[in-house]
Amino acid sequence: MSDSIESSSRQAPATPRPGDGLDRRQLLAAAAGLAATLGISLTATTEARAASKARTWPGRDVGPFDSFRDYVKALEDRGLVLRVKRLDQDKYEMTALTYLLIDRFGWYGAPAILVEEIKQDGRWFKGPVITNHMGPWDTEAIIWGREPVPGNGEETYREAIKFLYDGIEARLGKTPTIPTNPIPAATAPVKEVVLMGDQCDLLDFAFIKSNPADSARYVNTGSIFTEDKELGMNFGTYRCEIKGPRQLGVNPEDGQSGWKMLMKKIERGEKRCPIAIVVGNDPIGYFISSSLISKGGADELAIAGGFRNKAVDVVKCETNDMLIPANAEMVIEGEVLLDEMLPEGPFGEMYGYLGLKKERNFVMNVTCITHRKQPWILNQFTGVTRGFCTAPLEAFSFYRLKKLVPNAIAFHSPVEWTGIGILSIDKTGPKQGLEAGKKIVGVVPITKTCIVVDKDVDVLNRTEVMQCVGARWQPYPATEIIQEARGMALDPSSAIRSISSKIVIDATRQLPEEGGPAVYPERNRDLLTKLAPESFEIVEQNWDKYLKGWKRDA
User: Fold this and answer.
1) What's the pTM value of the predicted model, to 2 decimals?
2) Mind listing the domains of the chain with CATH numbers?
């Protein structure tokens, strides 16, 4: 387990692209064609938005998906994938294309990208290579077998959280589990090709160097399976630097479950740790790998089965006894050398800045690679796109948070605002905003700034939140600064990694006893709704007529 305001649109570079790649004109044409599909035209009617069907946990007609490629195909069927024939990653075309799509459509509107063939280190590799597979809002519903709310990403996300929260509440906070289903190796797709020993060469696969300043090509979306006789089993997503055909650097951060297991083995004097890296996990397995859902030592594959309402097919590794998902794209087996460490990094990290080079980090020798024929490779442009669906993490976090802050209404950590959390509360007395915010920054390491708002503010609406900061917050006395608290190891602003100062911004309406005005004016929109309640309904009914003939600039 690993422990949106849209970016402003910038001018696309005029640098010419290879004739068989995607040039700027083609990019803009593809982007224009995607606008309606991604809901950017804002033409959805009330009736269309109401067409979302209720689901049980989880639904059956859309997901869950047994494999990564089945999930990607479902996204493509819905117009959520931009397919490109060839990109030259030696010129960082895939990186630049990802940035520009985010610039144009935002973190939640940009499509997934599927590149059929990619050039790296002077060689053309057959892909596909995929990125941003959980970027669009709609993916928050699709992975659970639910229909998105047409044209309304925020409502899709809100419904996904409620759907998951209701399931969590019904289970009293416990994760659902279904035991795994072992299958013969002969029928496991991930065993279609088996490479042993010197047959293994990581450089023969379409793993890419994401950024020019990265130290090397990386396997950066693998679920790393580890086991320990005291701590149980775990799989988490940690970056892995390709050091050679059969060697990887492995980077669990201090305190993460994988790190704890490796350190426990070192304490016992062990010299080797068998691990398996699963590339191309199914979407529910991937989100569990990328987020903190279960307690240490839990059978996370059984939890994945519980979320899917269907057992995960598993198969035994070739060189150790660990069971891994049989429908994965690839499994890299090997041993971490517990008595030898090597430099690793730097690597472009989650805050959007270059991560530090580590002088000593774990090293893995590869002993076996099994994979599907022509495996699909997932690459994460860390800090550029959403890495995984966040509704389940927010649902579980909020369930736990309610015990700490009983008057909490909602809590949201925008992925593109790394370090900022937004909490809404039902405020009934003085100082409740600051007190709630202090509890949040005390227990959530990644939350460096907590903005607390009233219950009438939508935490998913960045504009509403910022208006409240401008209109309801007085820096004094509605601010609390914590000089030293637990932070994130990857925060580039921290002089001492994992230690951070923090701030609570109380943007709730300040009561007179807090120094606020005796009478607080109402918001203009609220007054419109109160005094002319039919106005929005009239416009919704005539929406298509009003917009007829308007052409959005592509």
Assistant:
1) 0.84
2) 181-378 (2.30.110.10), 405-520 (3.40.1670.10)
